[in-house]
Each structure stands twice: as C-alpha cells, then as structure tokens.
Amino acid sequence: MSEHANGVAPGRYGEVFDRGYAHYDGPREGRRRAVKSLFVYSIKRAMGIRKSWTAKVLPVLLYVSSFVPLIVMIGIAALLPDANVASYPDYFDGIFFLVGIFAGTVIPEILIPDRQEKTLPLYFARAITRFDYVIAKLAAAAVLTMTISVLPAIILWLGRQLTAESPWSAMRDNIGDLGQVIVLGTLIALTLGTIALVISAMTDRKGVAIAVIVIAFLIVSGLVELALTELDQDWRRYLAFGHMQLVFSAISASLFNAEPNMDVQEADLPTWMYYAWICFIIIAGSLFVRWRYSPGNTA
Amino acid sequence: MPLPTTLDRSEPDTTTPVIEVRNLRRSFGSFLALDDITMTVPRASVGLLGANGAGKTTLIRTLLGLLAPDRGEATVVGYDIRSEGTSLRAYVGYMPEAEGLPSNTTAADFVGHMAEMSGIPPRAARQRAADVLYQVGLAEERYRLIKGFSTGMRQRVKLAQAIVHDPQLVFLDEPTAGLDPRGREEMLELITRIYRQLGIAVVVSTHILEDVEKVCDYVLILDAGRLVAAQPLGAMEVIGGEVTVRIDGDQAAFRSGLEAQGVSVHDGGPETPDELSVDVHDEAVYDVIRDLAVQQGAAIRSMRSMSRSLEDIYLGNVGASREEVGAGV
Questions:
Q1: Which of A6, A21, A110, A114 is the best residue to mutate to test the B interface, defined by the most B CB atoms within 10 Å of its own CB?
Q2: Which of A223, A231, B89, B110 counts the highest number of beta carbons within 10 A?
Q3: Complex ipTM
C-alpha cells in the first residue's frame, strides 16, 4: 500500500485529515486578475447568479421579453418567406425602451451595493487602483447591456440569413448589416449603460436610482416629444438631444440608409451632431463616475 | 462555536521590520491627523492603541497606500506606500472596523472573490477561501448567505477575507467591536493564532487596552496624531515596576541588606508601615529578595507586583504628550 507524502495511509471513508493553514506559493497575477474578477463578479451579482431566486426574477423576465419576440420574428421569416419582418431600424426602435428598462433596473446592481453595503474599503484595500475599479464596473455595465442590445440583434441577423434560400450566400451578401447591427447595438448599450451608471453613482439606494433612470427615459422623452410638436421656435429642434430614442433613430437611419422618423426629420439636425452627442454622454459620464470614486468622495 | 485545531506552520520571523516610517504627516484641511510619525515596527503582534480620533485609522489607511501622506515616507513589507500601493496591498490584509460585507452572497463566494482581488487565480482562490473559512471556524456555514450571519460570524468572514491571500501583514481595525464576551475571546484567540501559528504579522488597532495585553507583544500608542510610545509590551510592564514585600523578621536589617546589594528600597508609607517597596529594574532583584530572606532567616509573608499596567503606561504617555502640547513644546 502506498503512503501519502506525510506518511499517512491513503484515506478511507470517514477518515479525518488535518486541514492546517497552508501558505500560498502560487502565482499572484496582480491588477489584471483583480480587475477581471471584479468584472465577472459584478456581472454575476447583477444577474442574480449564486444569489437568492428573487434576485434572478427581473433579469430573466427582461431577457425573456427580449428573446421571445426575436424567436417569433425568426420563426415568421422561416415559415413565411414573403412576410415583411421588421427591418433592423424598426427592431432597434422597438427594443430601445426594453434596453432602457434593463439598464435602469439591472445596472444599479453593479455599482450601488458596494457603497450601500460598505464593501468599498475592502476593494480599495486590494491590489487595484480606484481607476481599475471604475474600469471594471464600466466594462461590466457595457457588456451586460450589450447582451440585450447587441446579442439579440446578432441572433436576428443570423436567423434571417439561415432562413434565406441560400444561407451562405445570404451571409456573404449581408455581412455589412452585421457590422452595422453590432455598431448600433454597442452604441445603445454604451450610452444607456453609462447614463444608468452615472445615476447609480449618485445615490446609495437602488430604488431611487431605478426611479430616476425610468423618469429620465420615459418622462423626459415624453416632454421632449410634446415640446417638439407644440413649440414653434427654431431652437426647439435641439430638444431632440433630450430624447434618446430620437437620437438613436437618427443614428440608425444613417447607418442603415433608412428614412428617419418624422420627429428626426422635423428637427433637421446634421447626423454628426447625434454622434457627437452620444460620444459626449459616454465620455463625460465615464469621467463623472471616475470623479465620483476619487479619494475624498467615497470610501 | 469550536475552533479547529491546527499545527504550527511556521515560526514568525521577528528580526525583519514589517513597517518603517519616517516623518510621516497627514492632515485633512486644518486638522492634523498624523503628526511627524517616525517608527520601526518589528514583525510581531502589534497593538495600535489610541482614543477615538487619535489617528489610528488614518495611519492604517496611509500605510495601505490609500491616503497619500503630506510628507514623509514609509515602507510596508518592503514596498513604498507612495509608489507601490497596489503591489503592497497584494501582500497586506485589512479588516476594516465598519460593517462591510455583501448580504446576498455566500461567505465562500465572497472570500474567494476577495482572494482573486488580491491576484490569486480562481481555482486557488476557491480552495484558499474554503481553507481559511475553516480556520476561522466557519467550515459548515461557508455556503450560507452572509445576511443570515450573527455579528461574530460576520467578524470572522471579515477576518477570513483579510488573510485569504496569505499576506505578510494584516491590519485589524477594532476586530472585537460589537462582540459579546465569548465572541471577543474567540476573536482574540484567532488573532493570536494568526501570528503565532500562521506566521502573519498583525497590527491590531483598538482602544481596548485589555485586548492588546492579551494578544500583542509590541505596542504603538497614538495620541492626537502623535506617536507617544512604540516599544515591546513586556518591557513596558517591567520598566518602572516595583514589588511590595512584607516579611516576618527584622525589617530594618532586611532593608539594609537589600540596599547593600544595590537595590533601591522605599518605605511602604504611613498606611502600610510593615511593607517595603522594592524597585524592580531587573528580574534578578527577585532572586536577591529570596536569597536575603533565607540568609537572614526572615519569612516572606507577601510579595505583590506593583509594576505598571499597560493602562498606567498608556495614561502616562498620553498625559505627558498632552502636557507637552499644552506647553507648546
């Protein structure tokens, strides 16, 4: 009978081993590992993974709301080849508020609990900088939002090609659409994710963050629509920047060479202004979150 | 809750300083939190004593590289606090005073995540989390959500996350805060084991003198941001101590005998004229007393140590420090 290194015979059922503390001699991967871990952990927490079932309800419902219509659309395209399934601009227009609700309800879970539960001192006492922390959180928010803005759109693109008469040639012919789908979905994810993070960075209460985000998306958009129809001054067209769905409608139309909706046509702003506006939101929002987590503001 | 028994893993290396600080100063606006602190702290179980607001937490946060000092320099486990903060924190653990644990996650998940946050790869992190939670007495509870834990169990999770990455030094900020007497005893036992058995140097920040006396062998005393004492705890108790001796026999002859051997002796005072106060500057004085009693045929009826307690030392140093500040020194 062979023996273990410590001279103890191999274990039998029920045998008790000493589990003394062992010093760690393995690799230490520093900031890279820490940022990666924080990124993955943030996503898991937001999705309710390894948490109680109540934490999983909302994300699951939102994914179901996103993917079921998608499956129906692909099914219709497969069964009824002549049916007019929604165009990509229509699809993105349709899911915009769903992405907004996802960002508004799931993204606060990425940032707020660390302040609410006072775990920030534990994070900042680890092998990361505050900048690393913010980068990991921004990346988690962006990737998570992309799972509901980009991923379904890619599946829609794939479904359309696979249900075509000649899938391979359809893929080759429409590869450009895939790039546009990814660009538009990513821009929506980055913009709405950043807005949700900015609002989450300003409060320690998830309920408040969710309410403010929903108000920002729904009420502000409604007011802008009202103002666009009721006001007759020339400057009213700039109000379009306050209605994110209009902003992305304009960008979507430019990407897919489609006709923009009536409000965008009414505003008559150059397309580059819409791109500049979302770039400003993403950059300024990221800098704000970075500032919010600078020494003296938190922890 | 029974604590697991373990074998000694290593002998602490007490020769290398674990913290070296020179002229460290940190202020918040006009408030001076750390005032020109210079010290060399050995690899030991160190008590960081001071009243609330004395600067203990500021000192710890500065030594962790989380607060930049206004001036001065310091190294912790060989890393510069200004330029090597992230490297330093990979080898140092920190248990904050504040309640700070995620409620809706399991102890194993959280401690494993904290190991990864110190750069340990995921697989090793999970293994170490399980081992360390076992070490702090949470083997069975590690897969339960933290929100169901008692205060004592939460303190253990905080301790586990502080040592899961096998640090060379761990800062424990008020580790017994909020614990009942039994929980406090168990926490102090764990802290003792961290240094004595696991070989991890410990700095325990507290305002409870008794905790320091129980687990520490070196003490730093802060008062209003100034370091007023930094020395081995054992030496403190002996320095300036005295014993009160009462004998059956010729007291005057006994006193003369002691003085003839270079021992300083005082009268016991008007309330206890049959006692002698003997200065104990060296442990050999005890042998002198015993040998002289045998030589003179006197019976020692009582011998009480009057050596200064940590409390006396603390109050003495803090009082002296405040007098100096008051005198504008």
A1: A21
A2: B89
A3: 0.79
